[in-house]
Amino acid sequence: MQRRREFLQATGAALAAVGLAGCSDSGGTTDGDATTAADAGSGDDGGDDVGVDAAVAAQWNVYRARLADAAALGAHGASDVGAQLAATTFEQDFENAGGEHGAHETLETTSESAYEGFEQAAIGVRDALREGDSASAIEQAESAAANLRDAQQRLVGETAMHALDALAFADHAATARALAAAGQADAAAVAANTALSAFETAPAHEAMESAATDAYESFESGLGDTLSAGQRGNADDANSAAATAVSAAVDGAYAIADTTGTEAGHIASLQSRAYDAAALNAMGGPSSDFGHAAVLSAYRARAQDAAWVADAGASDAAASMAISVLEDFEGAAAHEPLEETDHDAYEGFEGGVEALQEAITAGSGVSDALSQVDTNLVAGIKALTTDTEAVILETGFLRALLGDAREQYHRGNAERAAASVEAMFKRFERDELGAHETLESTSESLYETFEDEHVGALPAAMRNGNDDAVTTHLDGARSALAEFAAQIAPTARVAGGESVTITARAFDAAGVAALDDRTRAATVADDAMAYFEGGAGGFHEAVEASNEETYHAFEEALVGVSSTASDGGSVFDAATGFGAQSRTAVYDVIGNAGGDLTAAAAAVARGALRDFEGARAHEPLEEADHDAYEAFESSFETYASGLESGTGDVSVVRRASLRAQFAVAGDASAAPVGDAASSGEGDSQPELSGGPNVVSGVPDDADHVIDMNAVAYDPAELTVSAGDTVAWTHADGEAHSVTAYEDDIPADATYWASGGFDSQDAAKTGWANGKGAVTEGESYVHTFETTGEHEYYCIPHKNLGMEGTIVVEE
């Protein structure tokens, strides 16, 4: 103990200097379901006799590591990426990890309180990061870990849990090592500090100290050296020290319990290293998917241009503008990613563009066709981006719409211009792509500037013909959105929104030229160039830094739009050429922002494979199941190569690791690994369907709308009149149900539930078979005829308190 106290005295000042709130071992189970050594389900055998349960308990460590990674990203200033990682971990992977030996179902059956506590904490990590509160995210991540530890103790026994806890701290150290290897010395220091703080009160602390004093001291000193080196900015020393800590924690785990359970945990720890690579790759900058989404956002603006140009009387030019979007898309880099990510959105977008061209030519149905184009592009953008990235692109699109209104007003159509602003504001008010809520929560001042000071006053200024006020409000609203974007994201992401705005202005110039105002067209292009030269939220500098050739081509193409307008050439062709250069610029900026960390991420994945070659779990896996062994080894190279090519899918490692974990635990065939396309780790889930009264979108005739958020109805209580129709719309999270409590609705009321079931038992059975689900883009609709209180709940989220009440009055 003396050496430990000396170590703490030596590093105490360093810990304080980082200033990150320590992670206490709080948030575990608190009710009668809490586990003790006496009531642990498998006793104190360390995992030898628990069979495949050891593999499941090991997989819970991966969820610990991934939530810790998310919190670490937030502490490093990448809260948006961390929030997306936390959301993916819980909403996509854990929620889908079903099956007999899936992580989700086993946790729920092992300890209901640990299950509920983990889900609440996982959601807490996500929500804290969305709010930019990294300290709370760290606390929630440790709460999630505490609940999983409780479940591990119940499932495989106290000793096995201690060994898994030691391996979880190996995962913490591995995260610090990955960050240091990527040159992120300061981030490695934060990760090391977080691990040291959490270790002080963790079960592994005393267990490792008792079982392997040398490993215990080496682990603490290794993390302390990582912290010190990171603070000095010495990434190489931090990397070396973190590697020492990883090895020490693994040695400590085997000293605590040299069993197949620890071997399964060791394999899961290597899986966590692949997720470290994924997190590192995300830290480096936006992915190519963000570039694809920026292209789709520009298509949104171009479709809007076709509509307003048609409305202004140039229907032939407008029809050509519309179909050119589809022609452009066919050869775009975004084509295949959209088709693969959201096939329905892909088909809906293409069909919508064709319908838009036909509607413009026919002179009717333009609004419906435009809505089809836009709705499907929004769906595609959501599928390809993080939440913050989607907001960034929405700010660019909203500015594009303000540009359209500017041109309508300039042409003397004040009423059309005012209506366009009002339509834009309605998009904002319904929180399209999250822009409204994010702006309001990020900066109340900017929110009020945008909404109250400028957008709210703009329609009246237009209708009153107050040119000075119109200019002031248009410029003010656009500036507020640009400033907001710069506050919530780094330049590489802001660049995507700026490219949408500038590209839209180039096509505005083409639209104005089609309406025979070439002088104005040249002015629009010149203004766009002046905006770019003025910085454009850092886009100018980012393009120049990423690729000088692209930078010059971008500027020449934009100048070409203006000169073509003045010289009598095809402004639309010039704008199309500029659009291509703008896309190239965005992809170059993205590549420049993330290239170095992409290479580092691939190196982390390959490093995990090298470590496996000398790992104590290597030979046991090879002997247990040679096919699982070979698949596990090859998965790391497959993933590393995918990272380098921009197609990396970490799930290939997850699936191979699960098979390997179950192999060393005694039965590879029991691994909950379904179709390779499954997003979760479990066997494929029943195909979800809504059934009667589950519709697409929100019906126009709904009297009331209730949002179904991740684990709550909003509002949870609603008073309506008899005969009113209520729509519950999916707003966040996984699929939901709306299921009446059979005994808590008026006695003379007909039973109601999403799926059209006639009883609560039927609704629960239906849900188990995928029926009665309300998914993204859908609503459940019910008309209330019977007065009284109607209480209801969401079947998959009942344990998290997702319940509601409808009070029906005469």
Strand content: 5-15%
Q: pLDDT average, as an integer?
A: 88
- Spans of 5+ residues with little confidence (pLDDT < 50)? 1-47, 675-680
Q: Helices and strands: which structural class?
A: mainly alpha
- Ends distance: 73 Å
Question: How would you describe the shape?
Answer: globular
Major β-sheet profile? 5 strands, mixed
Structure characterization notes:
The chain has 810 residues and is mainly alpha-helical. Strands 1-7-5-2-3 form a five-stranded mixed sheet, with no helix packed on it. The chain has a four-stranded mixed sheet with strand order 4-9-8-6, with no helix packed on it. It starts with a helix and ends with a strand.
In short:
The protein has 810 residues and is mainly alpha-helical. It has 32 helices and 9 strands.
Task: Supply database-style keywords.
810 residues; mainly alpha; Four Helix Bundle (Hemerythrin (Met), subunit A); four-stranded mixed beta sheet; 32 helices; globular
Give a topology summary.
Layout: H1 2-18, H2 53-75, H3 79-94, H4 103-110, H5 112-130, H6 134-156, H7 158-181, H8 185-199, H9 203-211, H10 213-232, H11 235-256, H12 260-283, H13 288-311, H14 315-330, H15 335-341, H16 343-362, H17 366-384, H18 387-410, H19 414-429, H20 435-442, H21 444-455, H22 458-463, H23 467-488, H24 491-514, H25 518-533, H26 539-546, H27 548-567, H28 571-613, H29 618-624, H30 626-645, H31 651-664, E1 694-696, E2 704-708, E3 713-714, E4 717-721, E5 725-730, E6 739-740, H32 760-768, E7 778-783, E8 788-793, E9 803-809
Parallel strand pairs: 2-5, 4-9
Antiparallel strand pairs: 1-7, 2-3, 5-7, 6-8, 8-9
